[in-house]
Amino acid sequence: MVDLISNLPDEILGKILSLVPTKVAASTSVLSKRWRNLLGLIDSLCFDESEEATSGSHRFFDFVDKTFALLSESPIIKKLSLSHIPTSGRDDDNSRVSRWIWTALERGLSELHLHATPRCHGVYLSRELFTSNTLVKLTLSGEYALEVDRVFLPALKSISLLSTWLDGPNYGRLLDGCPVLEDLLITETHRWALPCCASFVESASLRRLVITVKLSDTEDTTVFLKAPSLVFLDYSGYVTSVYDFVDLDMLVEAKLNLMLWDSSVYDEHHDDDYYDDGRPEGISADITRLVAGISNITTLHLSPESLELFHLCCESMPVFNNLLTLSIESDKAHGWQAMPLLLESCPNLHTLVIKGLVHRVTNRCGDACPCSPEEHKNKKRRTVKDEEESCCLSTCHVKVLEISEYGGSFQELKQMRHFLGKLECLQTVKVCVDADENNNNREVLQANLLSLPRLSSKCNIMFI
């Protein structure tokens, strides 16, 4: 086998070396003069220092230095990934990292991924590294940050900022210096992260934005988003009191995973009056402008808590004239209070996707579900005729209903009966039974669903 590999052309052996961990590849070069010469054909480098490494980064840095020396004749380096533990008392470490990056940039580097395990030392990159004409994809993670007065990356299309030490001014210069940026990923989930990147995004070229913020001290943060070319938004974070979403007319799809910074508010207001009175005390967040800013989308995905916050923290619901697909997730902890108004605000809705029918029973789910508490029914009795005339489902034009994680409980079967009996335009129902159900139960669940009456004569039930 060794002879077969050795007989391969140099170009193919170079590609093999690019797929092998750098430490192994460099060690191989010591064993064979031919393999050492082939290092010049490597175009992808990945250096990863393990958390368990003894003596920290001293030996690791020396190893990377030696490897780059062996690669001095390499004509091109397309990708460089570097993950390490910053060392204390070594002032030259930042300059060594900068030298490695600069060496790769001189050889046409297109992908750069940098991660430094947080140890409160910081790894700051210099200005010279951020004037590349070839860099297309950039990742900064952990303690990596910038100290620059100018950034110009004319080819950069993708940036990932993963809980970095990047401050506001340098972050702003980074975005301003990327005129063709299309994809931006921001996560701020660790205590060392500076909560600035996710609160301000302005880019004329940006098409895809993914933000994940899980820092509980951002309650009063203003979130500003201006991206006229944006087509996809995935936003996950604690709700705040001020959102300024402007120029999102091109937005097609949005995924929202919104959370209250203090989840105990739900428990403190667990009784029915909490829902009758609207927004409970203790909630200052307001997502009205966020919801209005995404009202031109055609596809909307909502987490269980996001759906409930549409009721608790949204003063007015806009009309989603272009919305064709609404996808929601449900769980036992959160209610469907926003469903009636949301469905009524989507006049052209075609597909309704629901992951899990079980949700928290409240007296504000209205006619979107049949599970209002008995106490509420006793307070306000309505005739069947009244319910039919006012039911939000009766005026809903949904043609496709997709249900996943269906367990066949009494509440779920009752909900399906409600949907099938109210949605008069329904043509296709796709049901995915919970994977935990055995085959015998599946047959029973399917039979129960198929026996339900359907308002629409064109309705066809499929099991997937």
UniProtKB/TrEMBL annotation:
One Pfam entry for this protein is LRR_At5g56370
Mind telling me which InterPro entries this protein's record contains? F-box-like_dom_sf, F-box_AtFBL13-like, F-box_dom, FBD, FBL60-like, LRR_dom_sf, LRR_FXL15/At3g58940/PEG3-like
Query: Known Gene3D superfamilies for this protein?
Result: 1.20.1280.50, Ribonuclease Inhibitor
Name the domain of life: Eukaryota
Where does the F-box domain start and stop, copy by copy? 2-39
Give the PROSITE patterns listed for this entry.
Answer: FBOX
Protein name (database record): F-box domain-containing protein
* Taxonomic source organism: Brassica campestris (Field mustard)
Kindly list the organism's lineage. Eukaryota, Viridiplantae, Streptophyta, Embryophyta, Tracheophyta
